[in-house]
Design brief:
This protein is an alpha+beta fold and 705 residues long. 34% of the residues lie in helices and 24% in strands. Helix 3 packs antiparallel against helix 4 and helix 10 runs antiparallel to helix 18. The radius of gyration is 36 Å and the shape is elongated.
């Protein structure tokens, strides 16, 4: 009996203890919830709330002619807070009444799911009371605006639960055109081009906002106003010196030669003579699949320039009065032994005693090497000092990050040898960029004034110019007037009597330029693969220079065509032809028609019958094709006008260049295209390029000037 009491006592004691413990727990819970609840809830909020940076809207990059080159567009990620009070009130009446029409609207807008699928998806989120349900990601601004008009969504965030997370993405409307120069602001990747150089201007000032983190680490913006929140300040816009029509001309001309010659890589630069503005810059590299893309900025990469460097050699020799153009030099048929090595001319021309001018026009390596050895063999530093004066030993300073410094060896260095000086005279044993070459030739074109090349005109904030960038003179006079006169004579002679004679024989404008052909090394294989770099540098019109153009192309091993006049020269000429017609010729003086033979070059286009009426009125002779089409192109040919058919089909885009508004629109509408027109005058550009496949109802934009 005593044992039973003893056991019961212990049981009762344990029971009482458990009751007391439970009472304490419930009391403590009540105290925490009711008395300390506000404190702990606020502490919990602080653990889930955090300040988050808000990126500013990045500024836009424009071309000089007002085209958008790189801009930011908004992109939206759409979420739904299914625990929102507006969705849950009255047992979810608002949600139930709108789900069918909302599902239909979403299906019609995005076209990725059926209305039933959207309904099941929304019901699932509602049932699970998801606070940050992901509905759709990366929708455009236009789609977002349409979505805001859908049932339920149009009632606002508090009632619909719809949340939009806005992000900006960078868009390059012209895609490959000047891509490497413009660059692209990419997430988790290094910026390039102007996007990198002017990043501090474009990116603006970051703001901050309060967000709440929920399950899964998802951050939801807090709507509550906070005095500590900072609105981002949008970035400034920049207006470049680039002209996209010139850029297209330059890129197309370079691409045509690159593809035809299966070249490795190449670049082309167009610079405005009087200002140093870069109007176009094309960089193309061959990819493994054989296509070409703006993959690297070859214009800012030093290479052995070859014969285009002979201009610097001639400047030094003429300035120091080592020679004059009428002095003779024996170029020994194209080969010369010096210090145990042979200097070769690129072509075995068989010439011997020639003037200095002729040696330059024929691009004789032997001639230039002899001039430098005879003039500077005992004082090589004097020659190097001339290169320094021409700024060939330092970067050009063009406003692009990534320009590499040139390589100019100095006497006494470990790389200097007995053959360094003569080889430098014709562009070997040193490395400069194509941009250096452009800056040098532009200085000669600009009456000796050397300008720094640049790519940005102005910085604009909210439509107002906050910074105007002016041309910068880096050398007021690179040489004397006498030397300049002789340089121009030699450069023009290259195009009339030298290596580029055939290129510009029938050109309606004069060119001063220089061809270049350099054998370049192929890594560990050295020079065995016979890889040549072709180049052409010059300016036009020679008597009143407007544009300087430099073209450099690295050819494939054992290329059939590799001379500068055969590879880089035609690219130069195609660019100069187009620029002359569109930008230079229109500023020239016009003369009335005479009975004399017309030696100028021209190209027009129009309705065949109307063209014939014009010729009849002017009593001009012209040649016609055997079978005429409704529209013809009129081109000069041996001093006369020749009519060429413009073939129009339903499947291929014809060339509209030179056509008037009436004819251009008639052709486009007849083949089923929708037309948008900019400007007036004659067609200078078309958004659908000639030769491209077309489809009925396709939109085309035609530019007139």
């Amino acid at each position: 009996m005593d044992v039973k009491k003893d056991i019961l006592w212990r049981v009762y004691l344990c029971f009482i203890a458990m009751v007391l413990i439970c009472a304490v727990i419930f009391g403590k819970a009540f105290y925490i919830q009711q008395v300390q609840g506000q404190h702990w809830r606020s502490l919990g909020d602080t653990l889930h709330l955090r300040w988050e940076e808000v990126e500013a809207e990045r500024g836009t990059i424009f071309s000089e002619d007002g085209q958008m080159l790189s801009t930011s567009i908004p992109q939206f990620d759409i979420y739904i807070d299914f625990a929102a009070d507006g969705l849950r009130e009255k047992s979810g009446k608002r949600f139930r009444e709108n789900i069918d029409s909302l599902s239909l609207g979403l299906a019609a807008l995005f076209k990725d799911k059926s209305a039933d699928e959207y309904k099941r998806l929304l019901n699932k989120g509602y049932k699970e009371k998801s606070r940050y349900f992901s509905l759709k990601k990366k929708i455009s601004y236009r789609e977002y605006q349409k979505m805001l008009k859908l049932p339920l969504v149009r009632e606002g965030r508090n009632k619909s639960g719809f949340i939009a997370d806005v992000k900006s993405i960078r868009l390059n409307p012209y895609q490959m055109l000047a891509y490497r120069t413009i660059g692209l602001d990419r997430e988790n990747a290094q910026k390039i081009g102007l996007e990198q150089t002017y990043d501090a201007v474009l990116r603006g000032t970051t703001g901050k906002r309060m967000v709440r983190f929920i399950a899964g680490g998802v951050a939801i913006p807090v709507d509550e106003d906070d005095a500590n929140a900072i609105d981002p300040q949008n970035g400034k816009d920049i207006i470049t010196t680039l002209d996209m029509h010139m850029q297209e001309i330059t890129e197309n001309a370079l691409m045509k030669m690159m593809v035809g010659n299966e070249a490795v890589h190449g670049c082309a630069i167009v610079m405005e003579v009087k200002t140093g503005k870069i109007k176009a810059i094309a960089n193309l590299g061959r990819r493994p699949d054989g296509s070409y893309f703006e993959d690297f900025n070859y214009a800012l990469t030093p290479t052995e320039p070859g014969s285009t460097f002979k201009l610097a050699t001639l400047i030094a020799a003429l300035e120091d009065k080592k020679v004059n153009l009428n002095n003779t030099v024996n170029i020994e048929g194209g080969s010369w032994q010096y210090a145990g090595r042979t200097v070769w001319d690129s072509e075995q021309h068989g010439l011997y005693q020639v003037t200095v001018k002729k040696a330059f026009e024929e691009s004789s390596n032997v001639g230039m090497a002899k001039l430098v050895v005879n003039g500077y063999g005992n004082t090589p530093s004097q020659f190097i000092n001339h290169l320094k004066k021409l700024k060939l030993d330092e970067t050009t300073g063009v406003d692009l990050v990534g320009e590499r410094k040139p390589v100019i060896y100095k006497p006494g260095s470990k790389y200097w040898s007995a053959t360094t000086l003569p080889w430098m005279s014709f562009g070997y044993n040193l490395m400069v960029t194509p941009m250096h070459t452009a800056m040098l030739y532009n200085a000669v074109a600009n009456n000796g004034k050397m300008l720094k090349p640049y790519l940005v005109n102005t910085v604009v904030e909210k439509g107002k110019v906050v910074k105007q960038i002016e041309p910068v003179v880096v050398n007021e006079k690179i040489c004397s007037e006498e030397t300049l006169k002789q340089l121009n004579e030699c450069l023009r002679g290259v195009c009339t009597e030298g290596t580029a004679t055939s290129l510009f024989k029938k050109a309606p404008y004069t060119v001063a330029g220089k061809t270049g052909t350099a054998l370049v090394a192929d890594g560990n294989r050295g020079y065995a693969d016979k890889i040549y770099q072709s180049s052409f540098a010059g300016f036009f019109p020679a008597e009143n220079p407007q544009y300087t153009i430099v073209v450099v192309v690295k050819n494939k091993p054992h290329a059939a065509k590799f001379y500068g006049a055969a590879v880089a020269g035609p690219v130069f000429k195609e660019i100069s032809d187009r620029l002359y017609t569109l930008y230079v010729k229109q500023n020239d003086t016009y003369y009335t028609a005479t009975s004399q033979k017309d030696t100028g070059w021209f190209q027009y286009a129009g309705n065949t019958n109307e063209v014939k009426q014009v010729f009849s009125k002017l009593k001009m002779n012209y040649a016609t094709p055997a079978k005429e089409t409704d529209v013809v192109s009129v081109i000069s040919q041996n001093g006369k006008a020749a009519l060429y058919n413009i073939n129009v089909t339903q499947k291929q885009m014809p060339s509209l260049k030179g056509l008037a508004l009436k004819d251009a629109v008639a052709i486009c509408e007849n083949i089923g295209l929708k037309v948008a027109v900019n400007g007036r005058g004659k067609v200078i550009n078309q958004s659908v390029q000639a030769g491209s496949s077309i489809a009925k109802g396709q939109m085309i934009t035609i530019e007139f000037k």
